Amino acid sequence: MTHRRSTGGDICRNQKDPARRRRQITGLISLGITLTVMGLLAWFVGKPLIDFIGEPDRFRAWVESHGIWGGVLLVAIRVLQTVITILPAEIVEVGAGYAFGAWIGWLLCTLGTAIGTVLIYLLTRKFGVRLVEAFLPPEKLRPCAS
């Protein structure tokens, strides 16, 4: 009886590779740190921010007291919300509409979303492949890259 070597055997053999194992552990630790930082940011920054924006009169007064910087800060809030997606966008968008009016609020939210999306793209370009390679060997990714 002859035994054929299956692709399943290749996968098991690759998992015993010490360098691959280190990459997997590094990837898992990085993922854990990232999720922890995002959770802490959401709790200590996002929650108070959402509570603040959820009070329309107070938020509008704050925006008006900062002049042009109120708009810049709203864009920064929207960038943060885009990157840390566990913060709800709707409250920021409604607050922007209330504070700046429908069109200016929409424009500022769209600008913040665009900047946040570009930031996510750049971060993914820099770190994304290494994170994926921690779990899949590069030879398995080559067919996907072409």
Summarize the structure.
With 146 residues, this protein is mainly alpha-helical. Helices cover 84% and strands 0% of the residues. It has helices at residues 7-15, 18-53, 56-65, 68-83, 89-100, 102-133, 138-145.
Give me the secondary-structure topology.
Blueprint (H helix, E strand, L loop, with lengths): L6 H9 L2 H36 L2 H10 L2 H16 L5 H12 L1 H32 L4 H8 L1
Q: Could you characterize the architecture of this molecule?
A:
Helix 3 (56-65) crosses helix 4, helix 4 (68-83) runs antiparallel to helix 5 (89-100) and helix 4 runs parallel beside helix 6 (102-133). The protein has 146 residues and is an all-alpha fold. The protein is elongated and about 60 Å long. The model is unreliable at 8-13 (pLDDT under 50). Helix content is 84%, strand content 0%. 16% of the residues are buried. The chain has helices at 7-15, 18-53, 56-65, 68-83, 89-100, 102-133, 138-145. It is built from seven helices and no strands.
The whole-angstrom Rg is 22 Å
Biggest sheet details: none
Distance between the termini: 39 Å
Poorly predicted spans: 8-13
Strand fraction: under 5%
- What share of the residues lie within helices? over 70%
Shape: elongated
**In terms of structural class, how would the helical and strand content be classed?**
mainly alpha
Search tags:
mainly alpha; 146 residues; 7 helices; single chain
